[in-house]
Amino acid sequence: MGSNIGSVEKSLDSSQKGDHQRNDGLLMPNPIQSAVRLPSATLLPTHTDKNQRRQYGLFRIDTAGESGRTGIHPVHFLRVCFRSTCTLSMLVNVFWPFIPAAIAIHFARPDLHVWVFALNYIAMVPSANLLGFAGGELAKKLPKVFGVLLETTLSSVVEVVLFMVLIHNDKGGNLIPVIQAAILGSILANLLLCLGLCFFFGGIGRADQSFHEAVSEVGSGLLLVAGFGLLIPSAFYSTLKSNASHTHVQMSTEALNQSTLIISRATAIILLVAFLMYLFYNLHSHHSIFDEVLEFDEHQDEDREKEMKRAKLTLIECFIAIGVSLACVCMSAVFLVEEIEHIVNEKGVSDNFMGLILVPLVEKAAEHLTAIDEAWDNQINFALFHCLGPSIQTALLNAPLAVLVGWGIGKDMGLNFEIFMIVLVVLSILVVGNFLRDGKSNYLEGGLCVLVYVIIAVSTWYYPQIVPEGETQT
Fold this sequence. Notes:
This protein is mainly α. The chain has one domain (63-462): A middle domain of Talin 1. It is built from 18 helices and six strands. The strands form three sheets. Strands 1-2 form a two-stranded antiparallel ribbon. A hairpin with a 2-residue loop joins strand 3 and strand 4. It is globular and about 70 Å long. The N and C termini lie far apart (105 Å).
């Protein structure tokens, strides 16, 4: 018996020595021999790790994103899409019949401008909701930070489509104010309305919610830079325009407009560089910090067990849902934009209210529902990503893209906003940054943000359309 034990010990000792190579007097593991000996690890007790990750090419499937199926199952696919992720999101799917109705009335009765606008406005909500849901399902199958950024980008597609269609349909600058107001309105809707509702509903039943400083500080810092960049062309124009008669520098209106346009285009390029730095920071140099934050947030989810058991889409079904929702939302966006001019001119709705309030509310509906549901489930860091991320993307990517595309097709799309509107955005960034400073949120801060948004909506309704000197309002 003793000799057997001694022989086993000798064999183990010799195998351990064989797994190391001499390198400058240090024992280094031999990777080849270790790899060969890996099967011996099966002598130890084994179990199936439910949290292990599976590799599928470029995609990493977490347990949170596994569907347990492959391919396409039409009935199951429709059932999962209809149930969505929460009750509020599921109720939104009731509006799906508005989509064929909106398409039909656009072609059958194009003269009914109000009805076409209203039906397509409602039709964008369920299609954007499906886009947000499918993007969220796909995000769960990817690394945390990359998944959230991809989900935000998919939701921003609606906004980009609206901007591009508005620029294409613009005639003599009549739709430029709507685009500019929509840019600022998108930022305001995310910062005040969406974030405020997240703080409010997340704070119900809790003293406060704590979020990581890496998310809040980076987000508020980028928004301050974005707000500064968007303010410069407007401040340049307003200062020279108002002081033209009191200074010795003589500058014609045409020269001032051209200089402001050049500054806007240069600012757009610089903001795009800032967006690339933001992506590099999140996805490469500091991605581990955000991965840990979001990983911790997943375990804070109060509906985690329910979410793990919820039926999910397969990878192919995610792409199908994204394709269908993108087609529907783009079609509704095109039909909606075609009626904006009639609504503004014939029904007395100001272009500022249209762009600042009405358009952002519908284009960001899916993002808002997702963020509010996450805050309700105590995933406040995820909610912050879905509130601050779209605002950053609008300011650093979508707005510069609109300027550069307008430049490319010969449209004078610039960042010369109404000074009243841009001041509202900058003040909103300061207010939200102050609330984020302590790393905690509660329902009071959320309610105050929503009230500020309501004040802005009321003031915008009564804000008149500014017509340059020498022109008449049509």
